[in-house]
Automatic annotation (TrEMBL):
Origin organism lineage: Eukaryota, Metazoa, Chordata, Craniata, Vertebrata
Cellular component annotations (GO), alphabetically ordered: cytosol; nucleus
Source species: Tinamus guttatus
A Pfam match: MT-A70
Membrane-crossing segments per the record: 106-128
GO molecular function (one): site-specific DNA-methyltransferase (adenine-specific) activity
Listed SUPFAM superfamilies: S-adenosyl-L-methionine-dependent methyltransferases (SSF53335)
UniProt keyword annotations, A-Z: Membrane, Methyltransferase, Transferase, Transmembrane, Transmembrane helix
PROSITE patterns: MT_A70, N6_MTASE
Family: Belongs to the MT-A70-like family.
Protein name, per record: Methyltransferase-like 4
Keyword Transmembrane (UniProt): yes
GO biological process, one term: methylation
Amino acid sequence: MSVVQRLGAGWLLDHLSFINQCGYETHGSLAHPPHAALDTCAPSVGRLCAASACATTCTSRDDPPPGDALEPEGKRGKTRYVFREEFFDVLKPHIVAAAPERLCQVISYIFFFFQVSWFIYFPCLLILQKRKRKCAFNQGEVDALEYHTKIRELIWEGTLHLVQEGLKSGFLHCTTTKLHCSKNVVPGPMGCGLAELCEMAKQFPAINDSDHEAVRAIDDKTFILEQDLHSCVIENNSSCAKMIVLMGQKYLVPPKSNFLLSDISCLQPLLNCKKKYDVIVMDPPWENKSVKRSNRYGYLSSWQIKQIPVSSLAAPNCLVVTWVTNRQKHLRFVKDELYPHWSVKTLAEWHWVKITRSGEFVFPLDSSHKKPYEVLVLGRVQGRVEEALRKSEEVLPIPDHKLIVSVPCSLHSHKPPLTEVLAEFVKPGAECLELFARNLQPGWTSWGNEVLKFQHIDYFTVMQDE
């Protein structure tokens, strides 16, 4: 269970526990193939098309990926993987808030200093009075401050109660003395450039959808080529994890999960499945100045996000959840333009609050630099009245406001799991879809141009080898 505590204010989540309970256990002789075998079939992005026959494969008992040596007979065991704990070792805030008593000491010292040296500073003060300092906020900053003022008390009180319960249960620790002193910043693997791979896939010959299967299951005897990877949904319908090798890099696929690796221009394979989803969660790459400056990842304009065919993917009364940055421009766009465009009625705004393992906010709550929370906008697809009424009887109504409090992963954009949080608001056995995903979950279909990013084997460690 990822839910550590459930209160009226919301949930305290254990993100790491959720990942490790997904069932990352592989079976077969090549469940944990030798690392040395990776180099024999690891084409660069530039040589992708020429090496399409061997760059992407699925591990198997009988047909190993090219370059992987067969293990001696009798070594057919199982290997269990766990996500590396150090990615959740957020032991102290990124910015430490000043303690009230220390602040009082500083103010007293400044007051005394000015009193003693008044005759020195008095002329300067007169000059400063004549000069009016420009400190006007722009409209975006005014809107952000107004929004923060409105929700501040809810976040403060709700987080306080959830943290108190977390400390009582032992999930959180009031001091870091009980915690091992590892560094917060842990480098992750380089991977194989999934977004670039999606761009290269556009060079493959077009496939006639009528002649191509919509879903391709991973089994122990079938190789999966890049052309298959981008042209159909890949499914692991088994009860154990599977390992796939993509351009020489290994990725773990959890049981009962589906994914499509493509960008927004290649969504047709997802539509070809003709599946309707009861839950759609999305984390769009919002456009902002810092993203443009860093060039860390691509972003989409508001116009491009509106082109996502949510209406074709959503079942009647589908619950739509969108992660939004703290820019009020984006929040207004989702509520006033995006959701109405998809015939989605906005129902609530929830907040994900990020804390350290000792229960402190990762940023001061009133920080002008960054806030320790992110926004989720929840809505439902509007359909026929009688159908909506029937569906609404099966699930609880969406509350106006809830908090999801958790220790964040240090990996950029690794969002907390919403599976258990949303369970009481959707029907049992609901079909779930995540758009712009960077990792996979059992029971979910995931899509994105970096959908396997956090499934890279280097993010995991071997816990048990039998």
